[in-house]
Amino acid sequence: MQPQIRETPEKARERQAAAVGDARAADEPQSTWRDWAQVLGIAAVVGVFLSFVGALDTDELPMLTRLIYWVPLTMGGTVLGRATGLLVAKIPQARVNLWVFGAILAVVMAAPATLVVWGYTSLIVGTWLPVQNLPALFGSVLVMCCAMTALMLVVNQPGRVTHAPPAGAPAPMVRFMERLPAKLKGAVIYAVSAEDHYLRLHTSKGSDLILMRLSDAIAELDGLEGAQTHRSWWVAREAVESARRDGDKMMLTLKGGAEAPVSRPNVKPLRDASWY
Question: Which of 47, 122, 143, 206 could form a disulfide with 71 if both were Cys (CB 3.0 to 4.6 A apart)?
Fold first, then answer.
């Protein structure tokens, strides 16, 4: 079993203070601009795709007209979704689950989005669409809102989290400990990172490779407090010594000297959980 690692309050404050100096102040504005660039870029790609397939009977329009129609609509819908999300976040029931939030968001934004699509479509075709077409248009827009919301939730989904038992509870059986090579038996696991089809184990006794998928390893690491900081990294919380910026990337410095990257969707959740 992996021993519990504890810090004194003084040491914890020193570690967090060092991380804050390097990370927290710089994170907010940069993450905001990068987040907007990412979601608008995804929306533009979706708009191009819808243009090429001629979605919702737009296949009869010239390709340039389709691009002028779909790309601004998908990007504008993303902006509308972000604004609507701020309102939906104030609904207590919407905060129960990420997918519940997404479902409520899609339904709430479908009404104003329908009016936007109705007006923009009328502009593109050069004549006002009949008002009686709005109910059918609402159904189509609702489907698009659900699809776009689901896509954005998947893209921005934080990594999986593993948990240690509550204080005073019996030490859990961490199945992954049985997979440690002989030379690492009894070691404290600092991190697990993916390298092709292998996993590199970063421990208090050094590192080694095993053949396994990261998703399967994270399932077996439950019982240790940690998180998937990046698509290719799981990190034990108590292994983090500091955090720093490397250009536009966030990096965690771990015990043993390894550095683990933090992907953009994980920056805020880990900060809110006082990882740095």
Answer: 47
Q: What SS3 class is residue 242?
A: strand
CA angle, corner 252, sides to 251 and 258, nearest 5? 105
What secondary structure does DSSP assign to 215-273, as a single string?
HHHHHHTTTS-EEEEETTEEEEGGGEEEEEEETTEEEEEETTS-EEEE-HHHHHHHHHT
The CA-CA-CA angle for residues 99, 102, 106, to 5°, reads 145
Q: What is the mean pLDDT of the chain?
A: 84
Rounded to an integer, the average pLDDT of 238-261 is 89
Summarize the confidence of residues 247-251 as an average pLDDT. Answer: 80
The residue extents of the domains of the chain are 9-26+160-272, 54-155
Judged by DSSP in three states, 269 sits in: helix
**pTM of the entire predicted model:** 0.58
pLDDT of residue 7: 40
The 10 Å Cβ neighbour count of residue 167 is 6
Per the DSSP assignment, residues forming a β-bridge with 202 are 191, 207
Radius of gyration of the chain (CA): 24
Secondary structure letter of residue 149 according to DSSP: H
User: Domain 9-26+160-272 belongs to what architecture?
Assistant: Beta Barrel (2.40)
Nearest-angstrom CA–CA distance, 213 and 209: 12
Write down the pLDDT at residue 112. 94
Residues 32, 38, 42, CA angle at the centre, nearest 5°? 145
DSSP symbol at 95 = G
